[in-house]
Amino acid sequence: MPRATLPLGTITLDDADPQPLYRQLYDGLRMAILEGRLRPGLQLPSSRHLAAEWSVARNTVIAAYEQLTAEGYLETTRGAGTHVARILPEYLLEVGKPRGATGQRLPAKTLSRRGLALSSLKRGTPGYQGAQARPFQHGLAAIDEFPSLLWSRLLARHARTPGPGTMGYELGQGLPALREAIADYTGAARGTICKPEQVIVTSGAQAALDLAARMLIDPGDRVWLEEPGYLGARGALLGAGADILPVPVDAEGLTLETVIGRSPPPRLIYVTPSHQFPMGCTLSLARRLALLDYAGQQGSLIIEDDYDAEYRFAGRPIASMQGLDRSGSVIYMGTFAKTLFPALRVGYLIVPEAMVEAFSDALRITGMTPPAVMQAALADFITEGHFAAHIRRMRTRYAERRDCLSNAIEADLAPWLRIAPGEGGLQLAAVMAQGADDRALSAAAKAANIHVTPLSTYFIGTPTQTGLHMGYAGIAEPQMKRAARKLATISEALKIPKWI
To answer: pTM of the entire structure?
Structure first.
């Protein structure tokens, strides 16, 4: 139990006050308890320690403690000391009474418009329960396959012998070694063209999105967002006050032709070209070039969220849009949460050279940077070849798990689900027949400890397609097969419409 620290500036004793010192101490402690500065269950200093701190007789402190104990504010246990009571007398006396000295309720405290918009988004992906994820949670890597011993050695190396820059404040836009490793990796694997100075390291992908949204758009600016699209991006854009225009997605990705000519032109365009979230399709090269050309002509900016680009199971991945950009329109975004493990909380942006200083200064103000020791260990993990080896190994493993889920859907869920086109990633989309209620199926599955996200939740407007978003990367094959059979039973019981 932590011991309380009572600053002299908070509780004062005045020899000139006509009230006895023990009463002044009683009043000060009582108010600190009622105002929440001393929380329920907190252990207080001993009477001897407190008397020495205030330079008063010990009997003064004992008298105050005894009075507070008698009134129910403190609890004293032999051998355990004195603690703030867990249930306070004023709370019991005031239950059900209106707050405020006049007996009138105070005005309701409300969030800002942006706060209300943000809180209305329910991403709804529960975390791990114990050692395993629920079937079919999406966005979760196979943590049991991660080389934890190797990672712990890298962390210990930098914890025992801190290098330059790992113990101070000024990380700026990230540890230089990690920015260089990211620039080298993305250049070789994703075809980006950048200097290490252009890499901005953040505490996860969502922090990168939030920073980019606040740096690139003003309240009311028009932003294009894929439909259906990523809720995390929608949240960051709403938080920045964006006027979001949903852009439909088909088998080749963002349908640029459906929105060209709409006024006003977008200030920002958010896309997931390598593996569209949630449908899984890849933005075709022709559409990438058309989008880059449009952005260059209009002066629009593009956030390229290179989501799940490492895990493509058929053919070679198309190079990043950032590497094709010639007008400085693209801000590239990546994360290690999906390739390594979510709790790592390391993401990054690659920004045009003209924006580097502004983003770096903003990052210092927001403080959205991961711990330096974590960055140093990750830099070593990449430069020593462990990252590339892990990606190669997991690409094979995830392909096996995708095949397992695909086969389970074909065997048990084919009457209700059809797998959407798309290769790779850590999850897939399975679409339902017209009129099927994916939210009802998701709710019933949740009661059976199966997590499937309704595709309809990813639409801003009226959903044009229902279905399920299903993860497989962190789920063992036998567990997936059992869950698929259970989901089929649930679908039958709910009379979910079937494909003809």
So the answer is: 0.79
